[in-house]
Write a structure and sequence with these properties.
Rossmann fold, four-stranded parallel beta sheet, 48% helix, five-stranded parallel beta sheet
């Protein structure tokens, strides 16, 4: 691990590694410190957010959709669905508080009289929420939005728990316990071997494709976006069985497949999906495509999801270091924001 320690000191100028290590405490704090909004059951739940702030909606949907008595919708864009009204519970999430799309959605929810809970570190969102009498969870500032994935997810679960819609306290406790152990195995000073470093080495020089079952789709998406933002590489993601009905043909017929590496996220598939995973791995191997299987740790659904997310965070971090890159800056996003600001 000496090389990684050296690369960390040379390249991680914003000390992202320290933020990655806080995920267990983010989950604990986020679940336990939430506003009380009463227990009146909403007609639907809507999660609004973009990028690193928006991943929480995907996690909540994957984790809780089959347990909640009302539907969950995730919105990543400028327009709320027409059904959102005064009976809706709308979570607006923007780490900076200034995300253009999410502010637009917030204003629409205010106009429609929805119940709103915000998650933000401040900015314009905090001003709008305070002005209209809506509560918000204040996220600690000074982090990359994508590194605050516990803060942008668990307060939502905490609110839903407080409303009596779910009971997940034991699952949260188990996840925190599991991740505290996992983080010790993934930091650069680990003496137990480091799965994230091994994965980063295996991915280096290839374009990664991440596949999972639908239950881990949020984690597969997180893998892609963390490889995009931290490692600054192209990546793709998809779910089995859907990719078996389209993408699989491209793997079979395109000789460029050997330039890729496929990461299979396992641990939450049913029996038929498991057969499909095994068949896909065999077919890819026949075409000379390398596949890597990554098993989820823990027993609870939330634990499995966050096991894969933490592994994605650290793998993408180490891949950045191996590529000689500081994982924190996202210059392309900042450039686009500048262009948009000039064209308001």
């Amino acid at each position: 691990m000496t090389r990684m320690n050296e690369l960390q000191g040379q390249l991680d100028l914003s000390d992202m590694i320290s933020d990655l290590r806080t995920l267990p405490s983010q989950i604990r704090e986020g679940f336990g410190r939430v506003p009380d909004i009463g227990v009146e059951r909403p007609s639907n739940i809507v999660f609004c957010g973009m990028g690193g702030s928006g991943i929480g909606g995907r996690i909540i949907s994957s984790w809780l959709s089959d347990r909640l008595p009302v539907p969950v919708t995730v919105v990543n864009g400028y327009s709320l669905p027409r059904f959102v009204d005064e009976g809706s519970l709308v979570f607006t999430v923007s780490y900076s508080g200034n995300t253009e799309e999410t502010l637009t959605l917030l204003n629409q929810a205010v106009e429609r009289g929805s119940r709103i809970v915000g998650l933000t570190s401040g900015g314009k969102m905090a001003e709008v929420l305070a002005r209209n009498g809506h509560p918000f969870f204040e996220i600690p500032s000074g982090m990359q939005p994508r590194a605050a994935v516990g803060y942008t997810t668990l307060p939502v679960a905490g609110v839903l728990q407080g409303m009596g819609l779910i009971d997940v306290a034991d699952e949260v406790d188990a996840t925190v316990k599991h991740l505290r152990k996992l983080v010790n195995d993934l930091v650069p000073t680990s003496q137990n071997g480091n799965r994230a470093v091994d994965l980063a080495v295996d991915i280096t020089g290839h374009i990664p494709f991440i596949y999972s079952s639908p239950g881990l789709g949020c984690a597969a998406f997180r893998w892609m976006t963390q490889l995009n933002e931290n490692s600054k590489v192209l990546a793709s993601w998809g779910c089995i069985p859907e990719m078996n009905h389209n993408e699989i043909v491209g793997w079979h017929g395109d000789p460029r497949g050997k330039e890729m590496v496929v990461v299979l996220l396992r641990g939450m598939e049913n029996r038929r999906e498991s057969i499909r995973f095994d068949a896909l791995k065999e077919m890819l191997s026949e075409g000379g495509v390398r596949t890597i299987e990554v098993e989820a740790g823990g027993e609870a659904t939330l634990t499995k999801i966050y096991h894969h997310i933490m592994l994605a965070d650290f793998t993408s971090y180490y891949l950045a270091l191996l590529r000689g890159i500081d994982p924190s800056p996202v210059e392309a996003i900042q450039r686009l924001k500048s262009i948009l600001a000039q064209n308001e």
